[in-house]
Amino acid sequence: GSTLSTHVLGGSSLSKPVVYNDTVILSDGAGLVHFLNAETLEGEAQLVLSNSVQGHGIVNDDSIVFSLAGGTLVSLDIGTQDVHWETVLSATGSKPILLEDGDIFISTGDTTISRYSGEDGSQMWQEVLSTGNAVDHALTPHGILVTTSGGSVQSIDPESGEMNWLEVLPGNGSFASEN
Known about the structure:
Elements: E1 18-20, E2 23-27, E3 32-37, E4 45-48, E5 53-60, E6 63-68, E7 72-77, E8 83-88, E9 97-98, E10 104-107, E11 112-116, E12 123-128, E13 134-140, E14 143-148, E15 152-156, E16 163-168
Antiparallel strand pairs: 1-2, 2-3, 3-4, 5-6, 6-7, 7-8, 9-10, 10-11, 11-12, 13-14, 14-15, 15-16
């Protein structure tokens, strides 16, 4: 294939692109958010964030939510390309998960998991994991699964933040050699 269009971005680290209607939204390592036409890639960096984006954004109605290095969760209005709300986290956050009702779930690099209002960024609940730092998470029909550095998998109720169940995996998350 041939190149149809190119757009030069700042910085060396790019977030994953997110497509909303006919707009491609991504952030570069310089903390610039780009809103580009999906067909022509025309557009410019419209907004400078306080830090670089961790992972990729998630679309929530007419906004996009990013987790930033340094521990900030930020929601940008896609139409106006302005900051809708910004919330400080307890540590640098992982990729956020959009819950069915538009709220945001995020785990941070420490032992904290939290739920934030998608409307205004206010914290709805926060829980501390008892089995290590949160490593990753996924949304299921029965709860939010959280894996930890202590070798466990936990199911968390998205409404209350309470643990549904906890399973400690064999080997406590480490490998052992057989001699």
